[in-house]
Amino acid sequence: MSAAMDTESTYSGYSHYSGHSKKAHRQGRDRHKSPRSKDGSRSEKSVTIQTPPAEPLLGNDASRAEEGQDDNWGETTTAITGTSEHSISQEDIARISKDLEDSVGLDCKRYLGLTVAAVLGLLVFLTPIAFILLPQILWRDDLEPCGTVCEGLFISVAFKLLILLIGTWALFFRQPKADIPRVFVFRALLLVLIFLFVFSYWLFYGVRILDSKDTNYQGIVQYAVSLVDALLFIHYLAIVLLELRQLQPMFTVKVVRSTDGESRYYSLGHLSIQRAALVVLENYYRDFTVYNPALLTASKSRAAKHMAGLKVYNVDGPGNNASGQSRAMIAAAARRRDSSHNELYYEEADHERRVKKRRARLVVAVEEAFTHIKRLQAEEQQKAPGEMMDPREAAQAIFPSMARALQKYLRTTRQQQYHSMESILQHLSFCITNNMTPKAFLERYLNPGPTLQYDRDRWFSKQWTLVSEEAVTSGLQDGTVFVLKCLDFSLVVNVKKIPFIKLSEEFIDPKSHKFVLRLQSETSV
Amino acid sequence: SQHSAISSFSFFQQRIEIHKLRQGDNLILGFSIGGGIDQDPTQNPFSEDKTDKGIYVTRVTEGGPAEVAGLQIGDKIMQVNGWDMTMVTHDQARKRLTKRNEEVVRLLVTRQSLQKAVQQSMMS
């Protein structure tokens, strides 16, 4: 059982605590250590204080009750402080379960919506044609003959339907690019409007024309034309509501990433909160640098050191004086002679120096490597047939000379997870093919780029949750705050209204540009 | 009421009589003037009121007739031989001071230190 559970989750270790054999305890604790060493890239954990447990720990209350009152509980109890191994394992479980949920249920909702809209659209499109054809089919002989006028109307119906078809295709037939939590209000409104509209037309048609077998064919055709006109106007309404209304910027939105404080500003128009969230996320993938958990270890270790310094234990009984505790902690922290700011300063200066040095070495190595590759001109192809290489081979040929410098630089800037050797080779051959300079090749590695630049499994951010105090279909207002959460970090979005600008004019007559000479002379007499 | 009387400039004046010195073909007084209604009053370092376009003494040559007569740097010249100097151009002021047929000029000047001295004596 223990071997099977020896995964990243160290929760399994606690099952060894049986209170019977001490050997099992030691094995359990050793097993804790191996997963921890693998977690090089994970966040630091604070040390859990563990005394050799002679007593059972959690969950074995039955045996405790058997032994009666235990006077040594103060020394043998384990205190779990700060982040314990429990929280890490729970994160894992959450991640696994979320991946499993990536599932069928949500897709059904999306496809249902699409099919309803498609069926409705088809119905709506065929309705005018049906209006025109049904009298012909059902009571052709009774119809009044209607010559050129009707033919003219047929042509206009045909072209209007064609325009409607093209317009609907342009506006609506697009790949859904996102899955939003609530129904898209305007779209739903329009669908309902169209449905009611067509329904009422059919009702009228059924009662007044089909039942009474109206013989005025021109009137019927004009009725169908009016339907098509009204559909075109609804299409216009759809364009205005869905596309045009949000174009004029009304709000400025500030997006801050919670882990490292990187922020951006965007301009949005009148949108609902969920649509604004979509816009923010689309821009997130392009504008924000990729989330790198390795960069956060420094601040986390500092935070852990702060917490490790002081722990407050309430030994006088159950009175939970939380505010008193926190005050005591803050006072003690202030009194302690803390030199962590000094450490931070020197560490950062040192790190910068190291990065700059490695960067210089890298740039030189890449430049030297690139000088070895020359593009073959057409006439030189005949002269050196033996040495010709395609870009991939050329890349492989010069890669070893710069590999070490590149790897060292990536290690120093903690980006080594994001670039595999294969991806580097591919990028190198791409640059060689497109005649790029060494600097152009390096721009991808010198600084972390936006999330889109990297491989999908390094994104850390695929499933998003919108957390909002107001309904997500309500519009943006000044002061709205909502949070976009993914497993590892969140984006806090703050909405501000663009101020009302009072612009006045002042006319300056070009003739008023006149000047005087201001002297200050001194004369001796 | 004492303060309002003090604010008026024109009461604290001094009469100075300068005898011109002959240097070759010229009669010199031994000081330099600045100011005038055609000049920029804001650049005048000696005036209290920066819109004052009057004529001020900007330099006094050492040992010259003006210094001997008691003229000091920063004095404002109100009259020259009875001619008003508070509303003249710079060139007009120069002309009035350098008339070739006059050997003595009698100036009516006012100065800030004079004003302050009188203020102090009135207050004590």
Automatic annotation (TrEMBL), chain A:
<feature type="transmembrane region" description="Helical">
    <location>
        <begin position="184"/>
        <end position="204"/>
    </location>
</feature>
<feature type="transmembrane region" description="Helical">
    <location>
        <begin position="153"/>
        <end position="172"/>
    </location>
</feature>
<feature type="compositionally biased region" description="Basic residues">
    <location>
        <begin position="19"/>
        <end position="35"/>
    </location>
</feature>
<keyword id="KW-1133">Transmembrane helix</keyword>
<feature type="transmembrane region" description="Helical">
    <location>
        <begin position="111"/>
        <end position="133"/>
    </location>
</feature>
<feature type="transmembrane region" description="Helical">
    <location>
        <begin position="224"/>
        <end position="244"/>
    </location>
</feature>
<feature type="compositionally biased region" description="Polar residues">
    <location>
        <begin position="74"/>
        <end position="86"/>
    </location>
</feature>
<keyword id="KW-1003">Cell membrane</keyword>
<dbReference type="InterPro" id="IPR009539">
    <property type="entry name" value="VANGL"/>
</dbReference>
<protein>
    <submittedName>
        <fullName>VANG1 protein</fullName>
    </submittedName>
</protein>
<dbReference type="Pfam" id="PF06638">
    <property type="entry name" value="Strabismus"/>
</dbReference>
<comment type="similarity">
    <text>Belongs to the Vang family.</text>
</comment>
<feature type="region of interest" description="Disordered">
    <location>
        <begin position="1"/>
        <end position="86"/>
    </location>
</feature>
<keyword id="KW-0812">Transmembrane</keyword>
<dbReference type="GO" id="GO:0005886">
    <property type="term" value="C:plasma membrane"/>
</dbReference>
<feature type="compositionally biased region" description="Basic and acidic residues">
    <location>
        <begin position="36"/>
        <end position="45"/>
    </location>
</feature>
<keyword id="KW-0472">Membrane</keyword>
TrEMBL record, chain B:
<dbReference type="GO" id="GO:0019901">
    <property type="term" value="F:protein kinase binding"/>
</dbReference>
<dbReference type="GO" id="GO:0005912">
    <property type="term" value="C:adherens junction"/>
</dbReference>
<dbReference type="GO" id="GO:0098609">
    <property type="term" value="P:cell-cell adhesion"/>
</dbReference>
<dbReference type="GO" id="GO:0098887">
    <property type="term" value="P:neurotransmitter receptor transport, endosome to postsynaptic membrane"/>
</dbReference>
<keyword id="KW-0879">Wnt signaling pathway</keyword>
<dbReference type="GO" id="GO:0005634">
    <property type="term" value="C:nucleus"/>
</dbReference>
<dbReference type="GO" id="GO:0009966">
    <property type="term" value="P:regulation of signal transduction"/>
</dbReference>
<dbReference type="Pfam" id="PF00595">
    <property type="entry name" value="PDZ"/>
</dbReference>
<dbReference type="GO" id="GO:0016055">
    <property type="term" value="P:Wnt signaling pathway"/>
</dbReference>
<dbReference type="GO" id="GO:0045197">
    <property type="term" value="P:establishment or maintenance of epithelial cell apical/basal polarity"/>
</dbReference>
<protein>
    <recommendedName>
        <fullName>Tax1-binding protein 3</fullName>
    </recommendedName>
</protein>
<feature type="domain" description="PDZ">
    <location>
        <begin position="15"/>
        <end position="112"/>
    </location>
</feature>
<keyword id="KW-0539">Nucleus</keyword>
<keyword id="KW-0472">Membrane</keyword>
<keyword id="KW-1003">Cell membrane</keyword>
<keyword id="KW-0597">Phosphoprotein</keyword>
<dbReference type="InterPro" id="IPR001478">
    <property type="entry name" value="PDZ"/>
</dbReference>
<dbReference type="InterPro" id="IPR050614">
    <property type="entry name" value="Synaptic_Scaffolding_LAP-MAGUK"/>
</dbReference>
<dbReference type="GO" id="GO:0098968">
    <property type="term" value="P:neurotransmitter receptor transport postsynaptic membrane to endosome"/>
</dbReference>
<keyword id="KW-0007">Acetylation</keyword>
<dbReference type="GO" id="GO:0005737">
    <property type="term" value="C:cytoplasm"/>
</dbReference>
<dbReference type="GO" id="GO:0014069">
    <property type="term" value="C:postsynaptic density"/>
</dbReference>
